[in-house]
Amino acid sequence: MSRVASSSTTSSVTSTAPRRWLRNAVALTFILLFAFYALLALDASRSMFHFMTDPQSVAKTEKIRQDADAGIDVVNTPEAHEYVPLWIRLMGRVTDSRFAYNSNSLAQTETYYAAMPSSHQLVLGLHMLLGGICMLLGGTQFWPSFRRKHPILHRRFGMIFVITAQVAMVMAMIYLLVTGVANTYSQLTFHIGLWFLAFIVSTSLWLAIWHVKRREIAQHLGWMAMAYGLLLSAPFTRYDWVAVGILFPETNFNEANYSMMGMLMAQCVMTAYLLLCVSRWWSRPRSVLQAMPWADTVRTELARWLPWLSLLLAAMAATVIYYYLLSPSLASSPLAERMIPQGLLNNEARVFNDALPSRAIYSTLTVSLLLLAPFFLRFAFGQSVNVEKLSAPLRNTALALALTTGLAALIQCYWAWDLGGPSHIKLSGGTFYLLVGGIELMFALLLSIAVIRQRLALVKEWGIFAIIAATLAPTFYWMLMLLDLIGIPAQYLATGHGYSLATGLASSVPLLLGFIYAVYGSASRERAAY
Hints:
This protein is mainly α. Among the domains are: 62 residues, no CATH class; 236 residues, no CATH class. It is 80% helix and 1% strand. It contains 25 helices and two strands. Strands 1-2 form a two-stranded antiparallel ribbon. The longest helix is centred in the first third of the chain and has 52 residues.
C-alpha cells in the first residue's frame, strides 16, 4: 500500500511540474507583453507633456506629415524622434512608414494632441502616465506564484493599481467633459466608448474592493480581471492597428480605425473573461461550493422568468428570420438606410443578395439554437451540482447547442471573408462578422469539451456564452433601432458612427452580462482562488 502511495505521490509531483512551468511561462509572457506596452504608454505621456512646453509642436508634427506625403524619409530624422512617440515609430517599422507618418496615418493623432489646449494636454498626459503604471503593476496581480510568494507586495501593488486606475478614469472623464464630442478624436463613437469604459472600470474596481473585504477572493479576482481587461483597450487599439496594417497593406490608419472601434470593447471583455478562467485554472478546487445565498436567490428568481426569457429568444429568432432570410441585406431595410452610409450598404448587398443558400442555412441553425436554448437552461439549472454525470437530456441539448453554434460561426466567418477588409467606403468590412463568428466558434468548442469532460459548471457557463454569442448578430439590429429612437446627429451618421456604435454595443453588452454570470456562477464558486 505504501509503495502505491509513494508511486502516486511521485507521479503527481512529476505531472504537476510541467503544468507549473507552463503556468509561469504563460503568466510571464502576458506580463512582459503588456509591460512593454506600459513603457510605450509612459513614453507617449512624455510626448504629451513635451507638447505643453513647445509652441512649435503643431507646426513640427504637421511638417513631418507633409514631408512623408512628399516621399521624404522621415523615419530617422531628429524631428520624428522628438515629436513622434516611440510606439508610432515602431509601428512604422512593423507595418509601413506611410501607415505611421503620412496624412491619414498614426501621426495624425499627434497633430491632434499637439493642437490641444495645454490644460487638455495635462489631463490626457496624466491619464496616459497613470495608464502606463496600471499596465506595469496589473499583470503581476494575476500571476499565482507571485501572489503566493509575495502576498504583501500583491496587496500593495493592488492598492496602487486601484488608486491609479481610478484616478486615470477620473482624468478620462474630465477630458471628455472639457473636450466635448465634436473635438474628441474619432468623435461620437470614441466619446461614448470612453464613457462606457470609465464607468465599467470604476464599478469593477469598487466591486473588487467590496468582495475582498468580504473574503470572496474568486469574485474579487473576477472584477479585478474586468477592470484590467478594459484598461487593455489602449494596447489592443494599437495592436489592432498593427494587425490591420499588416493584413491589409493598402489600408490607411483611419480605415484601420473603423475596424477597431466596433470590436474593441468585446475584445476587452473576452480578455477579462480569459483572465478569470486562468485564475480559476490556477486555483485549487473547494471541497464545498462557496456559499453565496443572494446569488442562489437570484438563480431561483431567474427560473421563474424563464418563460419571459423564452419570449425574448423567440423575438431574437424572428429578427434573424427577417434580416437574414426574408431580407437579403441591410440595404433592404429603411432603418439601415437612415443609419448607415450607402457604401457599406452596397458592400453588404453585393455579398448577401447572392448568398441565399448560406443565409438560409445560417437562419435555420441560429433559429434552432435560440429555440433550443430555454430547454438547455431548464435541464442545466435543474440538475443538482452534486450529481457527477450529466443527465441524458442535458448532454444531448448541450451537444446540439455546440453543433449549431459552431456551424453558424463558420458561415459568419465566410461572410466576413467575402465582405473584405476595412475601407472608407465599406467602413469595417467583415470585421463584425469575423468577431461574432470567432466568439461563437470558441464557445462551441469549449462547450463540447465541457460535455465530454462531464463538467456541469462549465457546461452551464459555456452554454450560456454560446447562447449569448448567437444573439450578437440580431442584437445589432435591436441596437440600431434603439440608436434611431435616441437620435444621432446626421453628420455622425454620414461618417458611420451609427454602425460602429450599434456593432460595439451589440458585441459588448451581452458579453458583459455573460461575464457577470461567470463571476458568480458555480464554476467560480467551486474554486478557492489564491
